[in-house]
């Protein structure tokens, strides 16, 4: 198996888990067999672009998100943080631009307050 296919599969697994989807649920949404999803996530399958598109659509993410690999250490804290960030992204993906900008502005204000508290 190639490192690239393994990275794509790991990324799909990570996004799926962040959305609390089972392999079976993702397979059903994508119109694929659940064992096929397992093979994709392990990097055992050299999938077509058409199949990748089905998986991306079923996950409801932008295509670029599948290729945002994290080559850093895979400590549990980093995995947990990544899953939370993906969950936040999933919450925002269906929102309009104004709503996303509002959440961004609020997040910046909250982080500024946290940073101020740290400096006291």
TrEMBL record:
<protein>
    <submittedName>
        <fullName>Transcriptional regulator</fullName>
    </submittedName>
</protein>
<dbReference type="InterPro" id="IPR050807">
    <property type="entry name" value="TransReg_Diox_bact_type"/>
</dbReference>
<dbReference type="GO" id="GO:0005829">
    <property type="term" value="C:cytosol"/>
</dbReference>
<dbReference type="GO" id="GO:0003677">
    <property type="term" value="F:DNA binding"/>
</dbReference>
<dbReference type="GO" id="GO:0003700">
    <property type="term" value="F:DNA-binding transcription factor activity"/>
</dbReference>
<dbReference type="Pfam" id="PF01381">
    <property type="entry name" value="HTH_3"/>
</dbReference>
<feature type="domain" description="HTH cro/C1-type">
    <location>
        <begin position="12"/>
        <end position="66"/>
    </location>
</feature>
<keyword id="KW-0238">DNA-binding</keyword>
<dbReference type="InterPro" id="IPR001387">
    <property type="entry name" value="Cro/C1-type_HTH"/>
</dbReference>
<dbReference type="InterPro" id="IPR010982">
    <property type="entry name" value="Lambda_DNA-bd_dom_sf"/>
</dbReference>
């Amino acid at each position: 198996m190639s490192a690239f296919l393994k990275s794509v599969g790991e990324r799909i697994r990570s996004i799926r888990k962040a959305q609390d989807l089972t392999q079976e649920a993702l397979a059903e949404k994508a119109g694929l067999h659940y064992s096929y999803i397992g093979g994709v996530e392990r990097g055992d399958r050299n999938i077509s672009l058409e199949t990748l598109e089905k998986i991306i659509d079923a996950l409801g993410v932008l295509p670029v998100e599948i290729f945002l690999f994290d080559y850093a250490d895979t400590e549990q804290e980093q995995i947990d943080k990544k899953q939370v960030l993906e969950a936040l992204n999933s919450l925002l993906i269906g929102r309009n631009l104004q709503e996303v900008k509002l959440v961004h502005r609020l997040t910046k204000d909250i982080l500024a307050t946290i940073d101020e508290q740290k400096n006291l």
